[in-house]
Amino acid sequence: MTQGKNVRTRRRTLIQHWQAVVRKIIWRSDISPSAWIAETALIDRTWPKGIHIGAGAVIGEEAVVLSHDLTRGLYLDTRIGERTIIGPRAMILPGISVGADCIVAAGALVNRDMPDGSKAIGNPATITAGADSSEQSRHDGA
What we know:
By secondary structure, this protein is of the alpha/beta class.
């Protein structure tokens, strides 16, 4: 084992490999090859060109990522940043941008854009600043 590496690798099942091929080639979604998407995650199929998922992103079991809203006739780009973790049964609404290194808690409903390094908890999600901004404010205020 290599020392100094704190990288956790996730193995993909055959179904996940097949889903990745379908999403990339047939649906034309913009999904990084290093993103890990659970087999049961629901990635929008009505307008898949609007899905953009960054490198190293993890999307949990039964999570939903939407890029359309048929009731309002919206077709918007939904972006998930690099190294972002979307928890199980979380939902990302159409047109939302989730920054890099974000964490979306299990069951959260994200209805606003999230800056880099932030966390979303609850339904609807309460978005809190990440460790970088809180450390900065502690240094500025102290």
